[in-house]
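W.,

You were right to be curious about this one. When I first looked at the sequence I had no strong expectations either way, so I just let the prediction run and decided to look at it fresh. Below is the sequence, 418 residues in total, followed by the output.
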Amino acid sequence: MGSIMAAVSSTPVASALAEPRNTLNIAHVGDSMEMGGAEKLTATLCRLQRDRGHTASVHCLYRLGVLGEELRAEGFEVVLHHPSSFFHLVRGLYRSFRRSRPDVVHCHNATAAIMAALPARLAGVKTVIVTRHGLVKPPYQIRRELKFALASRWCDWIVGVCEGTRTNLLAAPFAARDRIIHIYNGAWPANIQAAPQPKKGFTLLHVGRLAPLKDHATLLQAVALTRMHHPEVQLWIVGDGPLEASLRKLTNDLRLNESVTFFGEQGEVSPFLLAADLFVSSSLTEGLPVSLLEAMSVGLPAVVTDVGGMGEIARLSGAVTLVPSSDPEGMARALCEAVAGKQELHKMKNLASRCYEQYFRPERMLDDYMSLYNGFVSQNQAGTLHSGPQALSTSHKKCPTTSGSPRIAECLQADMSK
């Protein structure tokens, strides 16, 4: 597997990168800034980019969200579009880009690219990048992927958050295969100064939205089976969502009320990460979940379903146990082994921390994205590359058709708005 730097080291990009970089005006575009994996990564990029002297802003297509409010309070420009129609939204984005004159427009997920890539080019934006934060696995939503394939012709790079996403993007209908790479997600480390959440017994932690694709029913059933052998096991669920009422009912039906605690959405998850013994996820599909990376930052081993980028993390770290999806018995066996093998868990803690430091720090993610930004912005400033799909296809012939960073790099948010 090639490095991300290979994709930006081809002539004339290499010589451009060797020159001093100007500060950039970077506009991020997403559906919203609710509390989700893609949204947290967008906020992380904004903060790191400002720390390095760049200007970062966010365009929310439909909803502002709690993270959007936070960024506004920190002084970032966060634009909420109120579209009455497709054309109204496209026109609003075009006018915003004409006014703010960003050097880079970074779209997050398919809808953002479909809506913003062409308006960005028409407004004279030099560099357009899109990141697909989910797995984008078959069977494809053909209508949406065809729209994305068209929009991606206006993008310089299409980034998957793990090798699995990149592979699926390459196989998608009419994919722009010469522009598809992967960059691993990065996550802020947990705050080790936080006071750990009080607990009793061996504690499992799940962090994520209470939505169908997370398959919490499998997790709850696995916990019920595990407690037959290890009654000291407790489960913490951090997050909210549309399935909360039905999951509480299932918890009651499984007689887990005394061992499962729903904490709702939490702005700060560090107290839970510091106290838990094991991170768990039962998702049916994922990209490269930020919550798992945050857990690894404090050396928390994990038992997760073998979907999306989970297998990549398991191979890189040696601290993640994979189980089949939709298999309560299989997950229960892995949980029982973890509870019984506490000495092995201690070794896995060190492996998890080491893997996080090597591959998943947010600064490494930023370095890779800035390499992409600077490469194309520098070329445009030097007059070596013109905007538009024809010039882009010529440039991309010099770049590897498959690349990705083995040293860095979410959560599939697989509703129609992602």
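Here's what jumped out at me. The longest helix spans residues 362-381. And, maybe more interesting for your project: The first strand starts at residue 25 and ends at 30.

Coffee later to discuss?

I.
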